[in-house]
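How a chain folds remains the central question behind the approach discussed here. No coordinates are needed to read the tokens, only the vocabulary itself. For completeness, the protein is quoted in full, as a sequence line and a line of structure tokens:
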Amino acid sequence: MTPAPNRLKRLVRRAFAKAGLRISRIDQQSEAETARLKAASFNAEHPLPEGTADYLRHDNPRLMALRERYNALTVDAAVHSLWNPQRMDRQLELSHFRGDNVYVWQLRNVREQARLKYYLFMTYAQGIDDLGLLGSLTEDGLFGCWTFDYPNHPTISRDLLDSVNEINFLNRHLNLKQRDSFRVLDIGAGYGRLPHRMLQALPNIDHYYCTDAVAESTFLSEFYLKFRGCADKTTVLPLDEFITAAPDLDIDLAINIHSFSEMSIAAINWWFARLAEMRPKHLFIIPNDQDRLLSAESDGSRVEFSDRIAASGYKLIANEPIYRDPCIQELIGVDDHFLLYKRVD
């Protein structure tokens, strides 16, 4: 009679095989694959759209002008503890900005068995997708995005799955789908991942503002949101323009995803001073350290800043792991949290 452990292994292997998955020993991975899981990389399977390679260059006049403007700023938000030019040069291939890089880790976040872990993430997302976004949002893999294909399922990526998870969380707590309209501000919008997805998922968004203290991010957001046909409902505000515009912005929801956690406490305080001017009704944060709100100082130290949020008039109303299923959380090995705040004064 087959021993129970061996029989279980065979059943598991058969189940994953039906999904196009193969379980292998970590030490059987090629050296190239192992190296790819530890460094910035991009997927070159899909060619760049015509003309974009000539635009997405470090010597693009628009990007050079933004860098000059940002370098001239003296505000705390413009002083970077992590997002310095050396890091950007080392980790960002500008023409493949949707690869595994400073913006979105796609392979490095899961390391070994990436294909298996993204399958688990996909099945989890299907279970919480009350808005049916996996049936309406798509992934084309452009600009270096790592994608995964499984039998009888659409192509997925971390860009897509993260967005589906985040939008469903926000809708679950704020009932966004049923609103007549609302306005969003994305602080640290990166290349424009979430604005693109939210505008596709929620056509009742009146306007989506993006701002960032990194010139490359502003440059890429401008390009990407226009490329995706989102220009009519988005305004990408370079940091100097945001400073001028902030007091007059009428914002319902402010968003910060893995951005405050990569700033100094001085920069964080600067941003919360701006939020105090705008008084958005809700604030959505995903920190880097579970549900702990910690800065990233240049000397490697960390400063807790939850008191700054409370002092700005915000009360925590939801704190959830991004994977509410503890088994999925353990198997994927990611324990980030969604934090949602409401303005109370």
Notes: The first strand starts at residue 182 and ends at 187.
